[in-house]
Amino acid sequence: LCVPFVKAQDEDYYQEENSRTKSELTTDLKDLHRWGPKLGIEVHAAVNYNHMIMPLTIAGSFNKAFGGVGFDGGGGIRIRAYHKLAFAAGFDYAIRQFDLEYVAEEIGTGDALDVTEKGTMHYVGFYYKTLIELSRKFHLAQTFQYTWVYRYNGTASAVNQNSGAVYAPQNTTQPILDGWRTEDQAELGIEFAYKWMISPELILKPYIGISFGLTPTLHTNAFLDGFFGPQEQNPRYANLKIGVVFETGVWLDKLKK
Question: What DSSP element (H or E) covers 225?
Answer without folding.
Answer: strand 223-226
